[in-house]
Amino acid sequence: MNERDSEQVARMFTEGGYTVTKDEFKADAILVNTCSVRDQAEQKALGKMGSMVQHRKKRPHVVYGFMGCMAQSRGQELFQNVPHLDVVVGTQKYHKVFEYVDGILQNRLERRMDDLKLTYKGDHICDIDEEKDSQNTIKDHVKETTDPTAFVSIMQGCNMKCSYCIVPDTRGRERGRPIQDIVEECESLVARGVKEVTLLGQIVNLYGRTEFPKVDGKSPFVQLLEAVHAIEGLERIRFTSPHPIGYRDDLVEAFTYLPKLCSHIHFPMQSGSDRILKLMRRPYKNEKFIEICKKMKAARPDMAITTDIIVGFPGETEEDFEETVKCVKELEFDNCFVFRYSQRRNTPAADMLDQLSEKVKEDRNQRLLAVVNEIAQRKNNALVGTVQEVLCTGPSKNNPNTLNSRTPQNKIVILEGNPDRLVGKVFKAKIHECTGFTLYGTPIIESLEEAE
Ligand code: SAH
Ligand code: SF4
């Protein structure tokens, strides 16, 4: 989601005549989009912004800005922590970042023409207000890319109140975009060569529930999936994240008649203990979570399920933790993000008395990861010798001589071959090797010719 928001901001700068650089030493403006979900992410962003003050020495006009969740939750106080900061822009104001930064920059450059020795203090612009219809502002994409995959933000905010989570505080109430706007965005991406879209929201399956009616017993989210599915030239659809609440049979069924939906869901479980789920204010029982997973596997036998789990929530006993481990073993997730519980400001769980030590959290983290990794690697090894359909996305980051691709189950397959021929295509590949989480495959040329 943050990546998608950053892309929107980048696009506004390129439209305004700027170029995007990853080299902070060359930049005239340095913007850090921040996540607040865990404390570690905030500390990293603060550390990075602090260390970048050095650029002011050589380039005194550099504009510094924080955007996103930490900007939203800390607001003005960030100027005390980071004196060289110029701009703090919250989660409903991404569309204003360009205006603020460009304004400061032009002003500084003009003043500098008169006095070359001029130095600047932070400008201290802070905009973290609510903005009606801000969900409709995240809609443009950077033009200069050959990536055949794209993220599309379908909604903002969250109306749940999970007791550990800062998101409702930083992202506001749930607000969906109209189906037609989303479809048009997807169509324009497809016209540019995009083959796969991932629809983004905090609880995607609740998309539009307060704004749009059900039609023929189908939720607005399933209506949206059908509309996006009808786009010619689009080959794959993903979404993240769904939530057990409101995960109804119309969505399960959609996987039986919408073949472009990939056989993968990232479905956060958080805990396998009903007692902890209740303390987390997650309004479902473990049994219900398991039942949905089973229905999804019945609808699509090749369905891969990945999940998020928090370990070390306040009051989590060894028995609670063991219930989580048991459930992970039973459901055999294809992969799992394990998070150590992190105390967040203004959340009820932060004030719970029974906070666990970092040692206990780390111990459970490691034990759960060992179980998760063993299952994931066993499942990946079983794919050696099989043929998988892949979408080739571009050169691999680790070794640019090889190409990255993904199966519908979202597993990475490394390929060798001619990028001009393979990138952006969906074809079959024979898997010949597996090193834990990475699969290696060989394109099957006949299937590629069919794709052409
Ligand atoms: N809306 C999604 C989750 C968004 S946050 C959902 O409800 O499914 C992404 C993940 O961060 C969560 O699934 C959770 O596992 C983790 N997370 C959120 N708050 C956390 C906290 N305080 N400490 C540790 N992990 C947290
Ligand atoms: Fe946070 Fe819960 Fe909303 Fe997900 S559903 S964003 S975990 S409050």
From TrEMBL:
> Which InterPro entries does the UniProt record give?
Elp3/MiaA/NifB-like_rSAM, Methylthiotransferase, Methylthiotransferase_CS, Methylthiotransferase_N, Methylthiotransferase_N_sf, MiaB_methiolase, rSAM, rSAM_horseshoe
What Gene3D superfamilies does UniProt report for this protein, alphabetically? Methylthiotransferase, N-terminal domain (3.40.50.12160), tm_1862 like domain (3.80.30.20)
Q: How is the cofactor bound?
A: Binds 2 [4Fe-4S] clusters. One cluster is coordinated with 3 cysteines and an exchangeable S-adenosyl-L-methionine.
Q: Write the Enzyme Commission number(s) for this entry.
A: 2.8.4.3
Give the domain of life: Bacteria
Q: Which residues form the MTTase N-terminal domain?
A: 1-106
Name all TRAM domain ranges. Answer: 381-445
Biological role = Catalyzes the methylthiolation of N6-(dimethylallyl)adenosine (i(6)A), leading to the formation of 2-methylthio-N6-(dimethylallyl)adenosine (ms(2)i(6)A) at position 37 in tRNAs that read codons beginning with uridine.
Q: Which HAMAP family match?
A: tRNA_metthiotr_MiaB
PANTHER family in alphabetical order: CDK5 REGULATORY SUBUNIT-ASSOCIATED PROTEIN 1, MITOCHONDRIAL TRNA METHYLTHIOTRANSFERASE CDK5RAP1
Q: What is this protein called?
A: tRNA-2-methylthio-N(6)-dimethylallyladenosine synthase
